[in-house]
């Protein structure tokens, strides 16, 4: 395989595994939020604020991975 093919494969793996990890992380966090809100309904607003903050951080980590993958895909230092 050429270097271009290896970089394309690596970019696909970065994006795919990052998406799977972000989806699983947000799903687990959402289920724990619902469980905590059912146990302590008076804390629902504080928990919701923290949940959305963490959801943004999880999504930001995935988008940083996408940015790195796109950098390697379009500004590939290994070509030529």
Q: What does this protein structure show overall?
A:
This protein is mostly helical and 80 residues long. The protein has a domain at 20-74. The chain contains two helices and no strands. It is elongated. The two termini are 15 Å apart. The mean pLDDT is 90.
Keywords:
about 80 residues, mainly alpha
Give the SSE string: HH
Rounded Rg: 18 Å
Mean pLDDT: 90
Q: In terms of structural class, how would the helical and strand content be classed?
A: mainly alpha
Helicity level: over 70%
What does the overall shape look like? elongated
Task: Give me the secondary-structure topology.
Elements: H1 3-39, H2 44-74
Helix pairs in contact: 1-2
Summarize the structure.
This protein has two helices and no strands.
